C-alpha cells in the first residue's frame, strides 16, 4: 500500500469533517473547503483521525490514494492554520503597493506599472517599503499558484539577481562576459 495514503490525518480541535458519498468537507476557524473524492478511494473518520482507503491495487487508484490523503491533509491544515508564501522583490526601484483589498500595483522596470488582481480567499501584506509580499490563504494550491503568477511578472535574472523570487530561494549568479576571458 501507499505509505503516504496509509498515514492517518490528525484532526485538530475546532475542525469539523463532513463526509458525503464522494465529497469531503472541512470547516474550521479560517474557512471552509470541500473536495470530490475520486472513484475507487474512500475516506472515513475514526476517533480524531481521518483514514483514506482504496478499493483495489489498480495502478491508477494506487496513485490517487496518496494524492487524496495529501489533499485532505492540506485542507485540514488550511482551515485550522492557513498557508502563507513570502516573495522578495530585488532591484533598484522595484516595488509593490496595495491598491485596496484585492489589487496590487508593481513597479518592475517596465515602462508602465503592472496591476495584479488577487482571487477571493487570498490576502496579501506588503512589507519593507514594498519589497516583501506575504500571501496568505486557506487553500495551499491557490496560494502557491498566485505566488508563481506574481513571480512570472519579473523572474529573477541569473546575471544581476534582480526580479521577484521566493523568500529563501538561493540563486547562483552567472559570471557574464568578463568571466569567460581567461
Please summarize the sheet with the most strands: 4 strands, antiparallel
User: Rounded to an integer, what's the Rg over CA atoms?
Assistant: 21 Å
Give, in spatial order, the strands making up the sheet with the most strands: 11-12-7-13
How far apart the termini lie comes to 56 Å
- The proportion of strand residues reads 35-45%
What's the helical proportion of residues? 10-25%
What's the count of strands? 13
Number of helices: 3
Please mark out the parts with pLDDT under 50 across 5 or more consecutive residues, or reply none: none
Overall pLDDT metric: 91
SSE sequence, one letter per element: HEEEEEEHEEEEEEHE
Quick one: overall form? elongated
Topology:
Layout: H1 3-6, E1 9-10, E2 16-19, E3 23-27, E4 32-36, E5 41-46, E6 49-54, H2 59-80, E7 83-90, E8 95-98, E9 103-107, E10 114-117, E11 122-127, E12 132-137, H3 140-153, E13 163-166
Antiparallel strand pairs: 1-6, 2-3, 3-4, 5-6, 7-12, 7-13, 8-9, 9-10, 11-12
Write a concise keyword list for the protein shown above.
182 residues; alpha+beta; 4-stranded antiparallel β-sheet; 3-stranded antiparallel β-sheet; 36% strand
Overview of the structural elements:
The protein has 182 residues and is of the alpha+beta class. The protein is built from three helices and 13 strands, in the order H-E-E-E-E-E-E-H-E-E-E-E-E-E-H-E. The strands form four sheets. Strands 11-12-7-13 form a four-stranded antiparallel beta sheet, with helices on one face. Strand 8 (95-98) and strand 9 form a beta hairpin. The longest helix has 22 residues, at 59-80.
